[in-house]
What does this fold into?
Amino acid sequence: MRRGYIQVYTGNGKGKTTAALGLSLRAAGAGLRVFVMQFIKKSRCSEHKALERFNDLITIKQSGKGFILNRKANASDIDAARQGLDEVKEVMRSRDYDLIILDEANVAVNRGLISRDELLEVMEMKPVNVELVITGRYADERIIEKADLVTEMHELRHYAKKGVKARVGIEK
Ligand code: ATP
Ligand code: MG
It folds into this structure.
């Protein structure tokens, strides 16, 4: 039985979600079973369409009501995130997956959709042989402390600053 670790990809530079998705491909290539839960996001982005082709090994789900950067989180956002986290707990208990990715879970904590303690609890309940990846900017200090690997994507430059919107196939 191989041991799994907890990885966190955070920071303000591009590459956190794509790194996690890249890992899901690598893992599936090795025959590992992958579960991806995307918090906050609601629209079915291109990675869904791609990963659905590997649906014997990769399951990807969303538990959000859309981006909440420009508005206050409401009860429906909180409800969606809570349901997502409950499903993640079930998936962990099922032992059906080797790699579990919680995309944007750090943002869900930062925006108050789930509490830091709830995310810590999920980290705590990780089966020893499962690899857990948590992405999103603003990772909480306690989440960082508890992880075995932490990578910070640091923005040196981003075309978003020039007004380039998220593009299909590149950002979504
Ligand atoms: P990717 O999904 O490309 O790997 P990421 O997961 O590292 O990126 P997030 O923090 O999840 O990036 O950002 C989500 C989206 O917000 C990005 O795809 C981009 O469209 C937008 N974004 C990223 N950086 C900036 C920025 N500096 N200003 C405005 N919008 C940004
Ligand atoms: Mg992301």
